[in-house]
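pls design
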């Protein structure tokens, strides 16, 4: 309750007095440092129901309340956020070395709430109410501090999600300066996600000095680059099309594929493993091990919950994409070229002898499973010699030698390229511009 009072900028006695009469619908703790909880979720719906506006004394204007909470959250963050808020002893100190007590001492509950939920309240407020200037001013002053705080809390992913939500919310609005800042902030965080989550203070050094020279975030905060970095590295001027480079495989990548919801990416390699990546952050979520030879092909099921892999060990494996466990192992008996899902329970495997189609639940391949299935519906995104990414027969992007002889996958306007080095490179494009090129 104390945190609630500090968030709302009212005396704690006022909060306790108000809550005292609501014990039937709220769990009101004895201790001031404990949270207040709803006993009945329907009570919230009752309070904000527009039909109760004239009849219920406690009726709450939901959009107005969200707007007020944004203002309170910004006030709290402005008052507390600063560089190195937890007093870490050196720039490379790992987040894992920061204890819970240290976090609670320097980041009280009201600050943690404000950092995690102010964007949510901003999205839920009245879209016609223009408070973009206040948000822009906050980000121009405290973006790195906010990012550091969420990183320390282990919530850097929520920061990225919040920025993307804000970018969508800003579409069609007049806040061009805010839109540009948010778009640049997304690229800044994506490019540095791994180091931000591991060593938060690197936000002010490594992340800034390696950002493009014309990056809005870099130009806004270049004055905080540490003095002990006497010579800055030469960097490109602007962000390029490369969104992420995923590193982990020890041998060339032979297959890459997006899940149907475009949230995950799977890569299969000569190193006998399949890696499952978060397509937004570049985090490796799972490493699937079990094949005894290089993996030729990998594909997600229609619901993105299963992964099928086919290897030169002549085995097909069905994996649980969430846990990384191998659900079923099926003896193929032939070398595989590629795999695909025909229907939720049916798998197709292209081999040297033709296409085999079977129900993976049977765990064996029927004798008469050889079939003819057209792959014309699968988009061709690489030229026959592997040197170009193509669309509708038009050469779109030349691939350097290290990115050839692998595989290319497409999800919306994002292209994944598997490289000889074992890296997977994610490239972002404008879907509208690509369509114009294909039609020209």
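designed seq:
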């Amino acid at each position: 309750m104390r945190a609630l009072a500090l968030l709302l900028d009212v005396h704690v006695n006022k909060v306790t007095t108000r809550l005292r009469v609501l014990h039937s619908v709220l769990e009101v703790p004895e201790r001031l440092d404990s949270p207040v909880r709803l006993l009945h979720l329907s009570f919230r719906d009752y309070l904000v129901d527009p039909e109760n506006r004239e009849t219920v004394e406690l009726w709450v204007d939901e959009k107005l309340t969200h707007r007020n909470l944004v203002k309170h959250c910004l006030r709290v963050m402005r008052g507390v956020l600063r560089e190195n808020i937890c007093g870490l002893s050196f720039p490379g100190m790992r987040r894992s070395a920061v204890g819970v007590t240290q976090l609670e001492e320097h980041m009280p509950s009201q600050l943690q709430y404000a950092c995690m939920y102010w964007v949510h309240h901003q999205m839920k407020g009245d879209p016609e109410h223009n408070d973009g200037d206040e948000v822009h001013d906050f980000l121009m002053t405290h973006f790195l501090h906010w990012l550091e705080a969420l990183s320390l809390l282990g919530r850097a992913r929520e920061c990225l999600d919040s920025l993307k939500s804000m970018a969508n919310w800003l579409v069609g609005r007049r806040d061009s300066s805010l839109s540009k800042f948010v778009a640049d902030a997304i690229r800044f965080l994506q490019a540095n996600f791994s180091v931000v989550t591991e060593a938060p203070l690197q936000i002010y050094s490594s992340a800034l000095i390696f950002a493009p020279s014309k990056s809005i975030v870099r130009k806004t905060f270049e004055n905080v680059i540490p003095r002990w970095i006497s010579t800055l590295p030469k960097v490109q001027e602007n962000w390029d099309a490369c969104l992420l480079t995923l590193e982990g495989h020890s041998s060339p990548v032979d297959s890459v594929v997006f899940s149907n919801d475009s949230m995950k990416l799977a890569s299969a390699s000569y190193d006998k493993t399949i890696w499952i990546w978060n397509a937004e952050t570049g985090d490796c979520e799972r490493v699937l091990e079990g094949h005894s030879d290089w993996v030729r092909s990998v594909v997600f099921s229609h619901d993105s919950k299963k992964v099928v892999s086919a290897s030169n060990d002549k085995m097909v494996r069905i994996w649980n994409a969430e846990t990384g466990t191998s659900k079923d192992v099926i003896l193929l008996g032939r070398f595989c070229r590629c795999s695909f899902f025909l229907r939720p329970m049916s798998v197709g495997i292209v081999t040297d002898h033709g296409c085999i189609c079977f129900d993976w639940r049977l765990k064996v391949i029927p004798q008469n499973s050889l079939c003819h299935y057209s792959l014309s519906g699968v988009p061709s995104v690489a030229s026959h010699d592997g040197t170009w990414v193509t669309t509708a027969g038009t050469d779109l992007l030349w691939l350097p030698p290290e990115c050839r002889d692998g595989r290319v996958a497409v999800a919306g306007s994002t292209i994944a390229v598997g490289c000889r080095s074992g890296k997977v490179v994610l490239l972002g494009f404008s879907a509208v511009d690509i369509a114009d090129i294909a039609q020209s």
